[in-house]
Write a structure and sequence with these properties.
289 residues, alpha/beta, Purple Acid Phosphatase, chain A, domain 2, 6-stranded mixed beta sheet, 9 helices, 15 strands, 25% strand, globular
């Protein structure tokens, strides 16, 4: 085979592979899977089920709001947790799809909404986004959704749920830069040692700080499952262009402290997912050790 034919054959193969990858990415972006997880603790006095989703990013592909409602209704949760970045703070920002989703979900169980960097950006950059953050908060409040930013609520007799506001500089830091425990104490006070302490902390990069503060379970997102999932639960790239982060999603522990890391539901800027399906996470909290 001469060089021209070989080059043509190679180019045709490369185009075919790229087209197949883009087709698979689009299929995944329109998909939704449900995965179950379980966590035990002596602090938990009564079993509960939590449905957790994060990084919705105003997703409008297909009938996602109806599908999320249908799956959540089938799962019969005690609580629904939203881990932040439900909206996307960029040109033409909107909150319509998010409020349409929360309006559906709040009919199924109490809904608690943790703050992500995009919600914080709507609040911080009012010159660009106007009153959109106030409209989001007003809409959530009118529906009965509890938005948590530097605030703690008690659930039943054995759970405490806190929502941490993470300032923008932490999202821009390199992975090796650590968050000080004093930052959490300044924003939330001390962790509740008597109850099972849950923490909305949108960035998973500071798991060690969350654990040292006293979070029994941190609920994070932000990394979008690494955009492209590599073998070994390794994410190729985070939104901050950090490469090969592991684990990219799922439930994992360090000692007695755990993190539930969502791969997200939607995308923004880089509208790509590969081997990285949008996921509705179901966490069963159980009594025991």
């Amino acid at each position: 085979m001469d060089k021209k034919k070989l080059l043509f054959s190679f180019s045709l193969t490369a185009v075919g592979i790229a087209a197949a990858a883009l087709f698979e990415s689009e299929r995944e972006r329109r998909s939704l899977i449900v995965r179950h997880y379980a966590l035990r603790s002596a602090k938990i006095k009564r079993a509960r089920r939590i449905v957790y989703l994060s990084d919705f990013h105003e997703r409008r592909l297909g009938d996602i709001e109806e599908r999320l409602q249908m799956e959540t209704k089938r799962l019969k949760p005690d609580y629904i947790f939203l881990g932040g970045d439900m909206v996307t703070a960029k040109h033409g920002a909107s909150i319509e799809a998010t409020l349409a989703l929360t309006e559906r979900l709040v009919k199924l169980a109490p809904v608690f909404y943790g703050e992500g960097n995009h919600e914080a950006r709507l609040d911080r950059d009012r010159g660009r986004y106007g009153d959109l953050f106030d409209e989001l908060q007003a809409g959530l409040e009118s529906q009965g959704v509890r938005y948590l930013s530097d605030e703690t609520v008690l659930l039943g007799e054995d759970l405490a749920l806190s929502g941490l506001h993470i300032t923008e500089n932490y999202y821009k830091r390199a992975p090796h830069d650590e968050m000080e425990v004093d930052y959490l104490r300044a924003h939330l006070g001390e962790a509740n040692a008597e109850r099972f302490q849950l923490l909305f902390a949108h960035s998973p990069a500071f798991f060690d700080a969350y654990a040292r503060w006293g979070a029994d379970l941190s609920l994070s997102g932000h990394w979008h499952g690494g955009t492209i999932r590599l073998p070994g639960n390794i994410g190729l790239m985070t939104p901050q262009a950090e490469f090969f982060r592991r684990p990219a999603s799922g439930l994992f522990s360090r000692g007695r402290h755990a993190m539930l890391l969502s791969p997200g539901i939607g995308t923004h800027s880089i509208n790509l997912r590969f081997l990285n399906l949008p996921e509705l996470m179901v966490l069963d909290l159980k009594e025991g050790v």
